[in-house]
């Protein structure tokens, strides 16, 4: 290769185009050899394409991309809030009928249901001012119920409530219930929520377009052996906000980064054109943004990778929840799996030899990303453990390094994308000090998610806005109990009819 072509090793600067090799060879060799070489070059993949860096580069977005994405998100928030524009908006900005943060005087015993996260839980919560005690139990929702009929789902939920009440000796009591139902719902009152579409792993027939509280009450009635009334239905983002606001009055955003992703925030009534409640004090309402649907109209196509497209294609809701699919725990493991699979096929990982597990959709769990990125030295203890679980037989330290690199690219992109949403909300609210209540398995367990987000949000917010990103504890239980407590107090005082104006003072 003396004819002016620079050859470099994989991973080094510079690379050779196939045409260049051929042109150089033509000057050096006989016609027959040239023909063979031409044929060989035709079937060889491009050297450029074979570098690890090139295969994963699409995960790296520029600062300007994130800035542009924030502007897009802001535009979508406004579109969702506008009366005229809402019907075609993808980010729906649902008013929640929760009007104010708690004042700490909430008290009593409450039941709560938490559906839509990693687990389904029933909880018993005692509120006594700042003191909160809680008992809870996780119940499994079998796969066939998650994708079965609505009646099966709500019968199963009612059965779990019965079991829980029986175990806690509560069957003879009448305890108000709050329902944390973490799916997009158009609320028409504090205890009326119409499911607009299932997300995450759920797809139960006959529930979209229906009031989930009515379906729950019907299932309870069918059993006839428990006396439970649901007074409030909330989204998990609202739960996170309420739970955190119980001790921090600056809390004005609730953020979930778990199986799915979403955020809610406190908006002035004058900006909520679709508000149909009263305009009494406080002139504000919590808005459930349902930002996971950003991109469902193609506005994120310019940053989507081939891996994102594949994940979407094989999901149970193709074309929907595009932003969520690029960020949340339900999809992150699968995005990561597709990249090493491709690297392996190109002979760039595991000596080209994979395993059935690595080739199986959904088999690379999102918790592996957190585990792999938690390795801090060159022993790669967690990474090797994950490789063992994936039945990979041959791996080198370099393989560990590459796997760690891919994980960090995907999780950093997720953290930065989520930051875009938070920064857009902070800029929109334009308050001086805001606490963001964050919860969800991804935020909780990933070793760098919090720090990455703080760094990116800082870059994107207007000067002068101060924010804190705080872990919110047990929002789905405590938050539901707090909202239910206020609803119950209003009902007992006969001051407000539940379902019309929500948590009004
Ligand atoms: C749902 C939201 C929810 C989020 C986090 C999304 O898929 O649409 O309602 O808040 O997941 O659980």
TrEMBL record:
Chemical reaction(s) catalysed: D-fructose + ATP = D-fructose 6-phosphate + ADP + H(+); D-glucose + ATP = D-glucose 6-phosphate + ADP + H(+); D-mannose + ATP = D-mannose 6-phosphate + ADP + H(+); a D-hexose + ATP = a D-hexose 6-phosphate + ADP + H(+)
EC code: 2.7.1.-
Chain ranges of the Hexokinase N-terminal domain: 52-245
GO molecular-function terms, A-Z: ATP binding; D-glucose binding; fructokinase activity; glucokinase activity; mannokinase activity
Pathway, per record: Carbohydrate metabolism; hexose metabolism; Carbohydrate degradation; glycolysis; D-glyceraldehyde 3-phosphate and glycerone phosphate from D-glucose: step 1/4
Keyword Endoplasmic reticulum: no
Gene3D superfamilies found in the cross-reference section: 3.30.420.40, 3.40.367.20
Swiss-Prot/TrEMBL GO biological process terms: glucose metabolic process; glycolytic process; intracellular glucose homeostasis
InterPro entries per record: ATPase_NBD (IPR043129), Hexokinase (IPR001312), Hexokinase_BS (IPR019807), Hexokinase_C (IPR022673), Hexokinase_N (IPR022672)
GO cellular component, one term: cytosol
The Hexokinase C-terminal domain, residue ranges: 253-486
EC category: transferase
Keywords noted in UniProt: ATP-binding, Glycolysis, Kinase, Nucleotide-binding, Transferase
Free-text function comment from the UniProt entry: Catalyzes the phosphorylation of various hexoses to hexose 6-phosphate.
Family note: Belongs to the hexokinase family.
Name of this protein: Phosphotransferase
Source species of the chain: Magallana angulata
């Amino acid at each position: 290769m003396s004819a002016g072509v620079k050859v470099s090793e994989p991973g080094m600067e510079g690379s050779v185009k196939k045409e260049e090799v051929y042109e150089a060879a033509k000057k050096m060799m006989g016609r027959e050899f040239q023909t063979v070489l031409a044929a060989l070059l035709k079937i060889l993949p491009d050297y450029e394409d074979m570098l690890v860096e090139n295969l994963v580069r699409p995960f790296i977005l520029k600062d300007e991309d994130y800035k542009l994405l924030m502007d897009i998100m802001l535009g979508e928030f406004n579109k969702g809030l506008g009366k005229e524009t809402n019907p075609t908006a993808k980010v729906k900005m649902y008013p929640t009928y929760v009007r104010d943060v708690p004042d700490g005087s909430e008290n009593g015993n409450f039941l709560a249901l938490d559906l839509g996260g990693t687990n389904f839980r029933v909880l018993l919560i005692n509120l006594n001012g700042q003191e909160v005690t809680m008992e809870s139990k996780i119940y499994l929702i079998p796969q066939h119920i998650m994708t079965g009929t609505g009646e099966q789902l709500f019968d199963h939920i009612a059965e779990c409530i019965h079991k829980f009440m029986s175990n806690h000796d509560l069957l003879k009591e009448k305890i108000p219930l709050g329902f944390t139902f973490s799916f997009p719902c158009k609320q028409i009152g504090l205890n009326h929520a119409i499911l607009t579409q299932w997300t995450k792993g759920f797809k139960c027939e006959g529930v979209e377009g229906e009031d989930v509280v009515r379906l729950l009450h019907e299932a309870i009635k069918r059993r006839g052996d428990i006396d439970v009334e649901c007074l409030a239905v909330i989204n998990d983002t609202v739960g996170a906000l309420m739970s955190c606001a119980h001790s921090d009055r600056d809390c004005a955003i609730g953020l979930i980064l778990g199986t799915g992703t979403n955020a809610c925030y406190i908006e002035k009534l004058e900006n909520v054109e679709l508000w149909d409640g009263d305009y009494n004090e406080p002139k504000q309402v919590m808005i459930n943004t349902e930002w996971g649907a950003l991109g469902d109209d193609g506005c994120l196509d310019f940053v989507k990778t081939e891996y994102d497209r594949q994940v979407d294609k094989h999901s149970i809701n193709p074309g929907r929840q595009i932003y969520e699919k690029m960020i949340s725990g339900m999809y992150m493991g699968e995005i990561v799996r597709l990249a090493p699979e491709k690297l392996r096929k190109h002979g760039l990982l595991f000596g080209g030899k994979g395993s059935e597990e690595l080739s199986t959709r959904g088999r690379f769990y999102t918790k592996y990303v957190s585990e792999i990125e938690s390795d801090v030295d060159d022993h790669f203890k967690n990474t090797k453990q994950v490789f063992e679980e994936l039945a990979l037989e041959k791996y080198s330290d370099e393989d560990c390094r590459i796997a760690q690199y891919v994980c960090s690219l995907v999780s950093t992109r997720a953290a930065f994308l989520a930051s875009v949403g938070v920064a857009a909300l902070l800029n929109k609210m334009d308050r001086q000090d805001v606490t963001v209540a964050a919860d969800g398995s991804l935020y909780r367990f990933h070793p760098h998610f919090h720090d990455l987000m703080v760094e990116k949000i800082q870059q994107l917010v207007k000067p002068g806005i101060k924010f804190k990103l705080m872990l919110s504890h047990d929002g789905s239980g405590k938050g539901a109990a707090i909202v239910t407590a206020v609803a119950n107090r209003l009902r007992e005082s006969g001051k407000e009819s539940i379902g019309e104006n929500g948590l009004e003072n």
